[in-house]
Structure formats: C-alpha cells, structure tokens
Amino acid sequence: MKTLFDKIWDAHVVTTVKDGPTQLYIDRHFCHEVTSPQAFSGLRARGLKVLRPERTTLTADHNIPTMGQDKPIRDDTSRFQVETLEKNARDFGLTYYGLNHPKNGIVHVIGPENGYTQPGMTIVCGDSHTSTHGAFGAIAFGIGTSEVEMVLASQCVLQSRPKTMRIHFEGRLAENVGAKDMALYMISKMTTGGATGYFVEYAGEAVRNLTMEQRMTLCNLSIEMGARGGMVAPDETTFAYLKGREFAPKGERWEEALAYWKTLKSDDGARFDKEITFNAAEIRPMITYGTNPGMAIPVDGSIPTLDEIEEAGRGSFRRSLHYMGFAPGEKLVGKPIDYVFLGSCTNGRIEDFQVFANYVKGKRKADNVTAWLVPGSWQVREQIEEEGLDEILREAGFELRQPGCSACLAMNEDKVPAGKYAVSTSNRNFEGRQGPGSRTILAGPLVAAAAAVSGKITVP
Amino acid sequence: MNRNIDAKHIEMEKFTTITSTCVPLPIENVDTDQIIPARFLKATTREGFGDNLFADWRYDKAGNPKGDFVLNNPTYKGEVLVAGKNFGSGSSREHAAWAIGGYGFKVVVSSFFADIFRHNALNNGILPVAVSEEFLGELFVSVKGNSKATVTVNLQEQTITNNETGKSESFNINAYKKECLLNGLDDIDFLLSNRDKIEAFEKQRVYSY
C-alpha cells in the first residue's frame, strides 16, 4: 500500500546512493531569469550541453516591469539579466517565453495553463513556489541554482526522500472563504517550520471541492510551512482542466495518460508519517499581522497577546510587531492601509480576478489606496478582457498592469514605500519583501478587494 | 564513487575541522529575504553577495552601517554564524548561501534549518549544523559572556564542541554529502558519472511524459 507521493517518487528513482540521497529523474524543468544565469555559466565552465533540452522551459517573470513591456527594460542590470536568459535559451536550444510573448507570464501560472504541468510528473524550478504544480498530483518542488545546473546537465537532482504528511480538510468552507484563507489558517496552526522535512498531501471534502486554481493556491503556500511540497490527488476536476490544453496529451495519448493518472492516489491504508485534520467550516477570511505567513488571524480577530506566545519566541514576536507597527492583543479591522496588490503565483489567476472584480463591481477604489492589479500571465490578462472584467475594474477606478511577479518580491519598480501598509494576495510578508521597510498584510483576493474599496482592513 | 567523467571538474574547497569564534544572531525564522533581499538578486554571477548579507538589518537607508547589528559590531568575528530556530526559511534563492559564504562564514549553527537553504548551503561548501535547543541556548550564553568563546566543528567525527563549556554534541549529515564536503566534490560530477543509468531509466519507464 503506497501513498500518492510514494507512487510518483518510486517511478522516478534512477538510483539511490548508499547512505545518501536518491537520484531522481525530472520530467519538467522551468527556469526564470533570476535563479538560472549562474547555472548556465556553470555548464559553460564545464563544457556541458543541456542533456534533455525539450524538458526545460524558460520564462522571464521576476525582474521585469509591469508597465511598458514593449520598451526596453530601463534598469540596466535587470535588462542584462533578462537578456542573459534569452541568450542562454538560444545558446542551449531551449524554449523561451520572453516579454510580450503570448505565453509569457509567471512560471507557476504558465506551466499549468499551457498543459505543461501534468499528474504524476516530477517538476522543479529554481523557485520555492514550484510547490504550486503539486495541485495536479505531481511531485513539484523548488531547488537552488546548483541544482538547476544539475537538472540542465543530467535531467536529475539528488534528493533525500522526505517524510510524508496528509492534511485533511473535513467539511465545507463557508461562502466567503477561499483557498488562501485555508492556507493561512493552516500555516498559522502549523507554524512556518511545522512541515519542514515533509511532503504534504491535501485531502478531504473541502479540498476535493476546490477548483484547480484554488488547489494551486493551497499547494503554492505549502513551502510557507516549510514543506518540501504539497499535492492533491488528480481527479475529474484535474482531468477536465487539462483536456485540450496545448501541451497536454491528445487523442490516444490522452486515453493512455488518463488510465495512468487514475491510478495516482493514495491506497486505502497507506501509511503517512503524520496525519493532521482541520475542520474547514471553522475557517474564516484570514489576514496576517506579522512578518511571516504563520502569523495569521481571522480578519475580525485579535493579534495574540504576549502570554499566548511561547517564551522562546517572544523576542521574535515583539520584533515582528514593532516592524509592523502593531501591538499585542490589538484588532486589525478598521486599520487604514495604503496599497493593495492583486497578483503573484499565489493569487494571480483568472478566478482571483473574478473574485476581486465581482466585489468591486459598482463600487469605487478608496482614494487613499494605490492598487496594483497584475495578472499572472498574458493569457490571464486576455481572459480578463474577454470576460469584460477589465471594464468593471476600470469603472471602479482600477488599472490593469502587465504580467510578472511584480510587488510580490519587488525586484522591479513595484515597491511599497517604507512604513506603508500593503494588503497583498502574494505569499510572503517578510520584512522588506515588498520594498525596504514595507509592511505586508497577506490576504486572499476577496479581503484585498474589500480593503481596496474601503481603504482599511475590512471583513468582506 | 566513480568520478570518471568527460566534463571539466570544478574544484570546491575541502571542508576541514574548524575552530572559530562565533557571530551570534539570536533571531528565529531568519528568512532568505533577510539574508539577501530580492533587489540584490539581479547579478548573473555568484560573486559579491557577501557585501549585502543581511543588508536591511546591516545598513540604514543611506547605506551606513547600523551600529546595533551584530555584523557591524567589531567584538564579534569568526567563520561560524550562530542563529535562532528555523534558519533560512522562504525563498529558494541560492544567493543566500552565496552571501553567507561570500561574507566568510563556513558554518551556520541553528536548532533547525529550512530544507532548501540546507541543500543550497551544502552545495556551496557551507556546513549547516543542527544542534539541540539546549546546546544552542548555551552557545548564545557563552558567546554573550565571552566574545572570544570558540566552537570546534569536526565534520569527520560529526561533532560540534562549545569550547567554553566543553560540551559536545553530534550532528547529522548524510554520508554522501559528508564525503563531498571532505573531498571538495560536487553533485554534478556524481550525476554525470551516472549517465548510463539515466539513459537506462528513460528506456524502461512505465509511463513517459
């Protein structure tokens, strides 16, 4: 009896080093401009080619502007980094979706939407949110640049087999609660290191009821509790999403794939190293108050008091609240905010824009709020336009930008100024993450929409 | 291990036993965005990141060193960084390991490491040493009481000793990575030596993508 994880892992073992790691074969490798240049330099230094060029796909997303992408990137070092990616694609014969390419976008958005991401695969990228792809029932995880070089050179990585954990979300979610709220709730219970060393499978009624995009949001945030990755067993929702996508199997190959994919689930009685259950009905819309994603509370809740924090962690807790300008025990509802960011690999997909647009329809953006609405890809942006959401957003005083990682990590110009509060649908509220001194409050698209309209933290 | 491959081998520094004073950073959940903020990730080489290690804690807006941060305190020097629980969480950026190595640290001691950071450190010849909460707490006390307090990290024996108290602990590292560090070898040498196994795997797969 095997877990889903075991089945996929075992199907990718090339060899196992005695007392050491497993050499794992990688089906799909994504690269972006920030974590790959040194890997390609390494190949050149060793005189190596890319072993399986058809298995690597490149996109520029982290270090690009979200306005004026038709013009050369103004920042010299950023432009050079993107040009380096393009050159590496050319020199090593790899598929590259550069700026303005219809398939360009955030790596974890374009993988799934083009059908690259499939059940049963091993998927890696030099990016910790590669866990997103686990939503399809894949083993997907982030790697460092040395490992990017390993994959380019050998189509393999060396990994120690992680432990397995299953997290059940029993029951149903309330209507105004989404996958982001589930994830923030979970991380607040698990803490940021609570799943370190584990690969997590999400299960239970509330998970089965999620759409593919919601599953991606949940799996995306697995890394924020330290997990190597997160996954959901593929089912009819998965197959319906994949069918017809460009790089998904077609015709007879589709039938063959489907037969295999249907075997990809944890056997009854399969043993996990750890099992945890949450009651989905208990989850309310969530926000963060501190400087890691585990510091989350219901929007209408209170920040913990010092007594509620373990003694060893009190110094870090105080430091974090000081940075945020909040006090222990305080409520956040009604606090004015300055920025709203809708986007990122966590919440930059069409359903996120539907939720946001649906809420702001017929309302107006608050004057005190600067809002950055950044679609995860050109395909997402196109769909926003096809569905007329851009019109709704424009009428409510919002402007749509061009795809990229943008203010999630603020490598480009989309930086939140020091001391300002941003309600952000991204994945990390670390100190300075959205710009030096910026203060990030993580939330789902609905809570972000409510904040954008009211100008303060509001229960949606 | 078979290291006979065609590709050029890139030499890594061999890890030997280290005895050093410590730089204490008693903060939990130090994430890789703190270790090296994203705006410094625009480089296309591995060099120079040490100058921006912990940039936002280390420098003020004008770029002047902040006196209260430990890297700016001349009392504390050494090749060993001692940090609070869950060090290196967050982003997979290997730049974090390059920054720590570039600054001159060869060992990071903490009671808990995030997975990807641990991999990245090992791949750059930096040894993450996970110790018990007790050992870590005592080490912070030792270093606070005497900035000249040293630790000895013996990779061959897999032990770390607080020379101030004389207490030792053993730490875990897989045998393969230990051999790599001791001999200055990296994973690519190993993977390339398995080329025939990779091709054999591709031919025998049940379902191929």
Descriptive tags:
heterodimer; A: 460 residues; Aconitase, domain 3; Aconitase, Domain 2; 3 domains; 16 helices; 32% helix; B: 209 residues; alpha/beta; 31% helix; disordered N terminus
Structural class of chain B: alpha/beta
- The whole-angstrom Rg of chain A is 21 Å
What CATH calls the topology of chain B is Aconitase, domain 4
- Output the strand order for the largest sheet of chain A: 5-4-3-6-7
- Separation of termini of chain B? 30 Å
Total helical segments of chain A: 16
Most strands sheet of chain B: 7 strands, mixed
CATH superfamily of chain B: Aconitase, domain 4
Total domain units of chain B: 1
Helix content of chain B: 25-40%
Rounded to an integer, what's the Rg of chain B over CA atoms? 19 Å
- Annotated CATH topology of the largest domain in chain A: Aconitase, domain 3
Poorly predicted tracts of residues of chain A: none
Tell me the series of helices and strands of chain B, N- to C-terminal.
EHHEHEHEHEEEHHH
Largest sheet of chain A: 5 strands, parallel
Kindly state the percentage of residues in helix of chain A.
Answer: 25-40%
Strand content of chain B: 15-25%
CATH class of the largest domain in chain A: Alpha Beta
Q: Hey, which two chains have the biggest interface? A: A-B, 81 and 63 residues
Q: How many alpha or pi helices of chain B? A: 8
* Overall tally of domains of chain A: 3
Account of the protein in words:
The complex is a heterodimer of chains A (460) and B (209). Chain A is of the alpha/beta class and 460 residues long. Chain A has three domains: 4-159, Aconitase, domain 3 (2-Layer Sandwich); 163-282, Aconitase, Domain 2 (3-Layer(aba) Sandwich), CATH 3.40.1060; 286-454, Aconitase, domain 3 (2-Layer Sandwich). In chain A, 32% of the residues lie in helices and 17% in strands. In chain A, the strands form five sheets. Chain A has a five-stranded parallel sheet. In chain A, strand 9 (163-170), helix 6 and strand 10 form a beta-alpha-beta unit. Chain A is globular and about 55 Å long. The model of chain A has no long low-confidence stretch (mean pLDDT 97). In chain B, helix 4 (115-122) links the parallel strand 3 (107-110) and strand 4 (127-130). Chain B is built from eight helices and seven strands, in the order βααβαβαβαβββααα. Chain B is 31% helix and 16% strand. Chain B is globular. Mean pLDDT of chain B is 94; it is low at 1-5. Chain B is α/β, with parallel strands linked by helices and 209 residues long. Chain B has a single domain (18-204), classed as Aconitase, domain 4, CATH 3.20.19. Chain B has a seven-stranded mixed sheet. Classes of the chains: A alpha/beta (460), B alpha/beta (209). At the A-B interface, helix 2, helix 3, helix 5, helix 10 and helix 11 of A face helix 4, helix 6, helix 7 and helix 8 of B.
